Amino acid sequence: MSQFNKAPKAVIEKAVSANGNVQDVKSPEQQFYELTVNTLYGKDQFYATGQELADRFSKVIEALVAKGNLDYIANMFLYARTDMNIRNMPIFGLVKFANAIRSTGKSYPKLRQLVNDVVRRADQITDVLALSLTEFGSKKALPQAIKRGLSDAFNKFDEYQFAKYNRKGACSLKDALRIVHAVPKSDEQSQLLAKIMTDTLSTPDTWEVALSTNGQKAEAEQVSKAVLWENLINSKKLGYQAALKNLRNMLDAGISPDAQRKLSEFLISKAATSKSLPFEFWTALKQVQGRSNIIDNAIQGAMNASVVNVPRLGERVWVIVDTSGSMRGLAEESANFFASVIAKAHEGCENFALTMFDSTAKQVKLDLTSSISANYQYLSRMGGGGSTNFEAALAQEAVLGFKPDAVIVLTDNEINTFGQSNGWSGNSSEGAVKRAAPGAMKFVINAATSESTPMPERFGWHHLAGLSTKLFDYCEALQKGSSIVKELSVPYPYKEA
Question: Parallel, antiparallel, or unpaired: how do β-strands 406-411 and 316-322 relate?
Answer without folding.
Answer: parallel
